[in-house]
Amino acid sequence: MSDLTKKQKKSIKKVLRGASAKGLNDPIEKHQLLLHWNFDDGIEPFNYFVESKDTDLGTIVLLYWMLGAGFLCEESELRDYEKEFYELIKKIEENVKVDFYENQNISVDPKNVDGTDYLDECICDELLNKIPKELTRATPGELVERADLAAESVYKIYPPTEKDIEKLNKKIEKGFELLSPQVNRDSDPKDIIKVIDEYSKNKRPQKGASKKFSREERNKFGLLDLVLGEQFVRMQKWLWFIREIHEQVIDSREFILVSADNRYTVGLYAFSVEKYSDRNYSDGVDVLSGVKVLSDIDAYTKKEKAEQLKFCREYYNYGDISDEETEEKEVERVLARLKETPFYKEKIEGLTDKEIVEKFSVEIERRIYNHNLCPDGVGRLTDETAKSLSAGYVSR
To answer: Is 297 helix (H, G, I), strand (E, B) or coil?
Structure first.
């Protein structure tokens, strides 16, 4: 019952990327969306689920407990964002009491959801006694496992086609319409960046911690991201590429930039105008500061590296040694761990330590420094990958 058609997978992934859940008609599609959902993205799709008679009772029971029914018990004590969850919880209780849901083909046991006993986690017996019994016992039907939504795993970077470039230019022109009359496409890149920075700051909320933008406003920010990207092409000689990804919940084909030396890939999130606009930031956290970091990624990574090596010296008691000596010790430590990891054993069999370090340099670096040392949205390429990119194509 966990098997999905390609069409069903595509429909679920569309909703995960922001489309309306009303496009999901099959109860199994709704259940799979719930199994893949990140509640940090809100609960908008589930209002539709709760109001639909054809949503399976098993889906409703699982949703009920995932919304936090075990601890959201007093409306007066709730924070603002929790009230939305609470209201949906109460609506579910009302519907279950009158046998609203017609389908009962998906088995969910609230006492054992992937090892979690939601009833045991309920904050008090008094609350548990008030919950309709239909929501505290296993529903009839088949157990449904979380499906793999990826038809195949794909990661490719390749040059844009003429059609892609034409599309890119049109979007950049639209971006400049938002900045007119202060600047146009022929203006000095530094002037363009300053105007975008001002645009961003003017969008910041005057009060409150953050601001949610409409889809239309977010689309405008996306256009300005492309305008910013073009300034790096002009100033830094970066190049536009296409990155195509098909994974578990991702299907994307997007413009990215590659640094002139082919060492870094830079996604548009790296200089997202929206991320500098949605809240009250302290001075110095703005588009200009982000551009400054990206203009010299090597300096940023060097600083990050020095700080992490200092931490390693203190944490592992390496003593008073240089950064170079610390890194050597860290490479030895990580290398030993890789050799004991089943995933890597087969891949490194027959290789010398030097060959392993060369082949898995990015992975070793990530394990030493806990990340890739780059700013958000920036990826560092191995020498081997950079050579492939020079030839115009990277695939894994």
So the answer is: helix
Instruction: State the pLDDT at residue 396.
Output: 41
- Is-contact 113 65, C-beta < 8 A? yes
Alpha carbons 236 and 249: distance in angstroms, whole number: 33
| pLDDT higher than threshold 60 for residue 76 | no
Q: Which residues contact 300 (CB under 8 A, 6 or more apart)?
A: 293, 373, 374, 375
Percent of the chain with pLDDT over 70: 91
**CB–CB of 9/149 below 8 Å?**
yes
Highest mean pLDDT among 14-18, 114-118, 201-205: 201-205
- The residue to which tokens 């990277």 are assigned: 394
| CB of 46 closer than 8 Å to CB of 63 | yes
Identify the burial level of 235 via C-beta atoms within 10 angstroms of its C-beta, where 0-12 means exposed, 13-18 middle and 19 or more buried: middle
Q: What mean pLDDT is reported for the chain?
A: 87
Which strands form 394-395's sheet, in the order they lie side by side? 378-380, 264-267, 251-258, 239-246, 154-158, 394-395
Structure tokens at 204: 């910041």
pTM over 0.85: no
Cα–Cα dist 234/185, whole Å: 11
In angstroms, the CA 65 to CA 34 distance is 12
256 contacts 267 by C-beta, under 8 angstroms: yes
* Bridge-based pairing state of the strands 142-143 and 154-158: unpaired
DSSP string, 73-110: --GGG--HHHHHHHHHHHHHHHHHHTT------EE--T
pLDDT of residue 65: 92
Q: Is 310 helix (H, G, I), strand (E, B) or coil?
A: helix
In this structure, the dihedral spanned by the alpha carbons of residues 212, 216, 218 and 220, taken in order and rounded to 10 degrees, is -140
Q: Which residue did the predictor score with more confidence, 29 or 285? A: 29
The strand pair at 264-267 and 251-258 is best described as: antiparallel
Of 291, 156, 158, 279, residue with least CA distance to 227: 291
Task: Provide the 10 A C-beta neighbour count for residue 98.
Answer: 7
